[in-house]
Structures
1.
Amino acid sequence: MGMSRRALLKCGVAATVFAPALVRHAAAASDPIVIASMYDLSGGLEAAGKPMYDVLNFAVGEMNAAGGLLGREIKVVSFDTQTNMQLYAQYAQEAALKNKVAVVHGGITSASREVIRPVLDKYKTLYFYDMPYEGGVCDRNIFIDGVTPAHNTQILVEHGLKTWGKKVYTLAADYNYGQITSDWVKKYVKDGGGEVLGTEFFPLDATNFGSTISKIQAAKPDWIMTILVGGGPISFYRQFNAAGLSGKIPIASTTFSGANEQLVLTPEESNGVVVAYNYLQTLDNPTNKDFLKRFHAKYGADYPPVSDLTMASYQGMLLWAAGVKKAGVLDREKVIDALESGISIDAPSGTVTLDPQTHHCIFDVHLAKMQDKKPVLIETFAQRKPADTAAVCDLKKNPREAKQYIIKVN
Amino acid sequence: MAAPGQERLVAICRWHGAPACIPEKRTLDLAVVVGIDFIYAVATLALISVGLAIVFGMMRIINLAHGEFMVMGSYSAAVAVHHHINIWIAILVIPPVAVAAIGAIIERLIIRQLYGRMVETMLGSWGLSLLVVGILTMVFGDITEGVPTPLPGITIGAYQASGYSLFVIAMSIATIFGVYLVLRKSRLGLLARGTMQNAEMAAALGVDTSKIYAVTFAFGAALAGLAGGILAPVSGVFPNIGGSYISRAFITVIGGGPAALVGTISASTLFGVINQIATFASNPVYGEVALLVAAIILIRMLPQGITGRYFRGNL
């Protein structure tokens, strides 16, 4: 043995360290398109996150079975962010830098979106946020497939003022989504000649609503607007019913049933709650029926109801794929240009079109009332525009914008 | 034309010589409803803390899985209701029995190895709480049918109150009274108190101390399970709802001081009232903040807790 043991060990370590670099070049060939899914699969928001994750994989599975995108297989790298903001920041960076994904579909709460957005902006990774939210995001790198206040909150407020009365009491989640949406409620109520008697904020794990219910009774509103998020506030509906108030004071909600809260409540506790979403599982059109047939064939007929949040994830995936097909390449700038050229898909919720000016969606919004744990359609508002964001944002004119506009209500 | 209630109130006022009647009947109704809220807050705090008062107050075991014991009680109630067992049995009988059994197993496997070692017990029970949350999530998933409220709302004049709130208050009083009877009047209570006071002397007198420890821990766990079962219709049945209980329970028990029962009662009264005053003045978030600030001030002023200075020598 010519080499000393020390020299041999040094060479061995060096070889092991540099080997992957050599091996990787050999592996090349047909690489899949890598995309990232970033949803909470544990920790409190998994009731919303898991169905969105499942439907994303379902869409990818269907696309791959049909030959892939641009002839390449789509591979999903999944990050479970565990309802933890720190992990959102960390995984967003990892997805952009380590996995170099073509697009990130993710974020549930608006707080998580605002954590991911600047990170993906910095590392130039396309971002699709498929969720209802409070509106106002004006950023070239993000496309948002979800209802905003001009889509659904306005419809709910107008319905409430017309059907029930002018005095409103608001209960909202205590973070940016709840706070900004409650400001929009104030604006729409004022525009309709009504009055918001009071607004209360609750964290995602609040469970004690006894004093709130007493306060509501003292204030005597005509109806209640709930913008509640999280597992804890479901007990508001429970305690409201326990006090015998269900049905006495009507409730409209921008979030109810998004995470299938109605499954955990009895019918008496959830009947009569009015919601407005782009998608309802009970929509009666051929695209929806076909989607449900295929989806249930894969995941079983007893899968929890597909909510608007879940469908937004599916539609977001379809929109992105349509953009990539039109661009013909994965280059981010070209895909954004393609997505801005008026992409439109025939989705289970109706026609969904991406608005080039705001990167939000123009789609149908359906007003419905919960009955026996299912939404029953009241009225359809066809092809509603994201008027709230459009009033302040024009990405065609100012493509360098990257901020969220927040409404100011006095 | 005044409502009948208002007429009667006006008549009473005149009888007592007042020229006119100032309080509206409506305000009186509201006062009753708000009063129930206050007592309810105190009762809930006492209910969630009494189990920990036994385990930590008497045995000095820092059980960070106390919230998860409550959640297991809630889940056992939910499963029982799902299998169409009578709701009252599902809430009041099954959770304490189930969680007592689980508590006995945990005591034997984990806690027994760590007697006297506070930091290790903290770590062990914290790991246990994470394990329980994980198992519950895996077994039951994130969507569980809750436990419906078995009592209707009651009408107090122009307002509605929850009939179940009154039930919780009644059960809280009954539980505290039951624990008092067990500890003060029963042989097991006597042995337990003796062992906790001076284990060596008790052993010298022929008491099997390890069995007493096991039974007392199981008793504390049963109380936690009972609290979970009773509160299941109110706060819902989720794997991670234990977190919202544990901090309040610990604050109440430590603020209460060495005496398990009197300490729990006095601390939950103090913190519950402060919490509710702040909640009514603003919103539940500031109510919690007020409770925490009050706890900090209390511990600063009375480091041994309330029963370290007042009500000494009581159970």
2.
Amino acid sequence: MSIATDLRPNRSLQAGAKSGERNPKAMVFLVVLWLAMFIAMTVLLVLVVTTLIEGASRLDLRLFTEYPASSPARAGARPAILGSIWVIVTTAVLTIPLGIAAAVQLEEFADKTNRFNHLIEVNVQNLAAIPSVVYGLLALAVLTLLRVQNKNLVIAGATALGLLILPVIIIATREALRSVPVEIREGSLALGATPLQTMWRQTLPSAVPGIATGSILALSRAMGEAAPLLLLGGLVFVSFDPNGLLSGFTTLPIQIFNWTGRPQEEFRVLAAAASIVLLVLLLAMNGLAIYIRNHFQRRW
Amino acid sequence: MDNLTATQPKAGSRALTDRSVGPHSPSRRPSLITSVRRPGEAVAKIVLRLAAWLTIVITVGIVVALIVPALEFFRQVSISDFLFGTRWAPRFADASFGVVPLVTATIWTTAIALITAVPLGLGAAILLSEYAPPRLRAVLKPILEILAGVPTVVYGLFALAFVQGTVLRDWLNLPTGSFSVLAAGLVMGVMIVPTVASLSEDAMSAVPNSMRQGSAALGANRMQTSLRVVFPAALSGIVAAIVLGVSRAVGETMIVAIAAGGQARIVTGPLEQGQTMTGFIANAALGDSRVGSIEYDTLFAVGLLLFMITLLINFISIRFVRRFREVY
């Protein structure tokens, strides 16, 4: 922020003056700002620490190898961990190509003066603000329409989460495409490439780091999401490993929700332990996204 | 960017045909490149266009999916009984479908969340945008972003076990049960701090530096510049950030499902428990609602109300931003 250096001479000129930076009101204001930041950070720290303390005693191998059980001592989150992986991979395969295609169309090819295209743009913004449970209701209604009896399917869960993060991926991809300078496109077109070749061989590859970062962040959001999956009956007792797109499943967030609702204290400990696993997974995904952003993003 | 729009579908495809039929048109020199027709390109363009149209299909799908079962619901329950009824008991023998209790709980949790998130978020945003040197910003911003990445079930567990159980009951000795809208609202507020902070900071960073310099030249200190120059100039963006926070709070499900409680009563104080609209949908999903039963349709009626409220909030935000945007 250049303002910091801009103001320095001013401050030294006015040292001691009523309106200077050392004015008591200004000092209090700065303290209040720091307090706001400090409170937010402290809550994060307390959340992580309390979860760690509560869950540490059950953060053992059983959590990864055992199936949910009615006795907390024998219960584990194996199907939930596998289910989360199944659902997220399926969501990624379904959604990322679609989101990129839609973003390329909107950013590179769509006629921006066209009212219909404008409608699509506003609509994507709106979709991003719709509560996640509503996507669950959508998936529930569609499955009912298809007369599917058992709605707890990997493919159904992945579709619900995919619809939820599609607008996020579209918005991130558009931003990544927008940051690729026009000269790259013009150079390619001038060399005789068609608009589509230009997009496929020049613009899109240049935007890959931005797209990857946005997609990973969107997927990590889907991974922590439980509300839409609840509506598909993801809370049923799953004591088997998911093994296909039409398999029943449960995910880590749903397993955590299930355990928090039990009366026994031991289940709350299990929920905290599973929360640690989920937090570590998400932190790894976020870290990867930030790494890609910092190391592969090109500055033009 | 403007140059790019020249490659809009029509212009683009015309340019393409010109090139590929080049040798055949008498007015043009034969192209040096082997001119091959590219049927694949037409297909690819259609695929791209379909992908963009899909987003409209999803919206229409949501509206239809919500409205059809909701209409079924309103055939049995009048709209005024639903909107103004004060007793919510869809599963009882003498069922009653007044949504007011759910709405009061949503208002309480949302209001508490905003009272928490707006000061914290704006404080953090002013600090990041007006005070923090770049290196400090590079540390603080990612930490705030982690706060946004914590899954809502984990927040819910934190609200239930630590905020409600330990802080409110054990430490402060407040007269409250296992659940309260206060605990859910406070934690929800923390959850939306990054949303408010990051969007407000973007808005404030977009205010040109010349305005800050002008203010400083007139003898204002940084507090005065922040509050009287930058803040008003960025107001439309800040309001949009807060409004997005509101719509996230209204739609948040897991925190309230875990920590706010499961009894649908009119909430009159922050220490009471209450079931929000989203909390009802989550809880109803736990029970087995037969397709075609009134319980099943109730889900969609409440979902439709929730959808309309968030849509309304969103439109207000878009209007507000357009009306009050300062363009520099």
3.
Amino acid sequence: MASQATRDTGFDRVFNIVNHTVLLLFLVSVAYPLIYVVSASFSSPRAVINGEMWLWPVDATLEGYRAVFNNPRIVTGFRNSLFYTVVGTFVSVVLTILAAYPLSRKDLAGRNVIMFLFMFTMLFGGGIIPTYLTVRETGLLDTRWALIIPTAISVWNMIITRTFFQVTIPDELLEAAQLDGSSDFRFVWDNVLPLSAPIIAVNALFYAVGQWNTYFNALIYLTDQDLFPLQLVLREILIQNQINFDQMTDVTELARRQDLRDLLKYSLIVVASLPVLIIYPFVQKHFVRGVMIGSLKG
Amino acid sequence: MANVNVPTPSSTVGTDAPRAIPAAPARTRTRRVAGSIKKNWQLYAMLALPLAWLIVYQYVPMFGAQIAFRDYSPQGGFAGLYEAEWVGLKHFRRFFDLPNFWTVIRNTLVLNIYALLAGFPLPIILALALNYVGRAWFRRTVQLVSYAPHFISVVVIVGMLFLFVDGDGIVVRILSVFGYDGGGLMENPSYWKSLYVWSGVWQSLGFNAIIYLAALSGVDPTLHEAAILDGANKLQRIRDIDLPGIMPVAMILLILNMGTLLSTGFEKVLLMQNPLNMSTSEVIDTLVYRLAFDSVFPQFSLATAVGLFKGVIGLILLLAVNQLARRLRQQSLF
């Protein structure tokens, strides 16, 4: 940025060449594994294992994807994850705003105490077993709510949201509304929410990506396979190597099964990551904004 | 504070109790608090649900952590907590006496320090490098691509890793060109930490640079102009202008990182573990999980004690580093 104004000479020219080369290498090293996975998901598994496929698909096939979409557990997991992501994000955003707005008001008595109660949980927590016992005691074990309620509020998101309200909602607006006899509920609904689209977007994205990508709570809170989110199914297939091919009607020889297993893994990785990666370039700036608001008040 | 002086028509909805000027200074504070609660009851109504959540799912577990000091049976509910016998530090002592106690502590520290050494400076370097790229499209492309892995789930990242470093994966095939013939890397304890750390760097380097890019964009451009007039080259400008400019942010992130020195990326470690690499991959967090959820006889009290031990040490560490940073550079979190 700072370099555009001047003509580079001598040392700076060398600096620029080195800088661009290093960044280009970095770019390739991040992109290559991603391209490799996508290409492998469309290639014949033999070509991948023999190393013939190194950049673009070889002997293109859609068999991996067919296997993915014919696997009932994957399809159920995908549907469950959609539910958890949509409902969980909604619940989280609502609760976050309900906490953040009152705490952004300077005239709220006791707000420092409440803020401290929230922030202390970022430093110290009861741990996974006491949390598990609480989830069990509140009757959420083996229900869909187990993945939504216990992690509903991220204190970090609540703090950025509060900072956003403090910075963007002018005191004069509140005073004017109060002069008009507006209550706090009305003020939030009529004045605060319409101004908060950017922070709602940031929150929704952080929560949605987090919810889509996590597996651990499902691992300890759920035993009913029909409730498993996609990530837990992925764990079984990608990490623990458990694939059930019962759905395949034709009798396939063992070697071909092993090949298909690898192919399915590549295709599955693409399918599982696609929803997030497709929307990501369009919402990238919101994430960046979220990180920046966060850095306003570390 | 904002609306204290606003004159409110008394005929309004009734949320604004008319406020008398306090007569006695001693009663001012109580009066003001009471007045505020009455006037702002709708704000407290909004807070009700989040506060209930905070108490039930954050503070009740903290209270429940006392099972670390009791002989709690996994089948007992919350009532069982009080019936469980008080045993003091027994479970902590059992933890210290575990045959793999020192291995677990060492693994946790080594893994985190390794991850910190690799993961802390690189985003700074990337941000500085991007900051000196003139062509906007190139900078944007690098950013777009390097942020992307951050959005891939940890299960998928580890799944990819397994496919790549498997006995016939691409990484092992490339290594075999240089004479390597040790089979899959994941099963090899001496490579495990590097796999963990560098796959993490691959995933989050780009995204972690965002905060430094933001800090760099806040550096006063006239400083650069003056430096260019004085004949400073780009390395000198980085050293004397940019680095001091991002120092405060870097210090805060370093403090935060030190505070979590005992908390590994637990979800990822758990996925990457197998019986063959356990000697380097077992850390405090995975031990807690294994004791409570992955054993024939779940040991909730022992597992909670181990987790509590980690939590307390982590808290002390964070406060200590924060104190140190405050003394050294007037930088601190609180």
